[in-house]
UniProtKB/TrEMBL annotation:
Its EC number is 4.2.1.108. This is L-ectoine synthase. Belongs to the ectoine synthase family. It is an enzyme of class 4 (lyase). Pathway: Amine and polyamine biosynthesis; ectoine biosynthesis; L-ectoine from L-aspartate 4-semialdehyde: step 3/3. It catalyses: (2S)-4-acetamido-2-aminobutanoate = L-ectoine + H2O. It holds the Pfam family Ectoine_synth. One of its GO terms (biological process) is ectoine biosynthetic process. It comes from Halospina denitrificans. Keywords: Lyase. The keyword Lyase applies.
Amino acid sequence: MIVRDIKDLIGTEREVQGPGWTSRRMLLKKDGMGFSFHETIIPAGAELHLWYKYHLEAVYCVAGNGSIEDLATGETHQIYDGVMYALNEHDRHILRGGTEDMRLICTFNPPVTGREVHDKDGAYLPDES
Ligand code: 9YT
């Protein structure tokens, strides 16, 4: 069994930051679950252009607010405590922080391996190990 307290991850190798996001990676590929599991903080007002070409991601908001724009349809969906979105078609999107920092629980399939950050297209590169 794996039991982890987020407080023990802050400031370690498992905390990764990029422009407009901080990710605390509670489960990684090496933990052997077949998916990774993260807490992600998106500050108020942030704007991220993302396109997970090589991963599927599901995201569940547990605090704060923001929105996601689906670049295939032009639709924007509000995000707040209780809303989940799943990028089941590797959907290109813009994630926007709202008026309060968003706290998101995210899972990636296949799992991220460690300290991935987005490339110029907003993707994490595939794991080739
Ligand atoms: C929601 C999203 O994709 N934010 C970017 C960071 C990512 N969730 C991660 O690595 O935790």
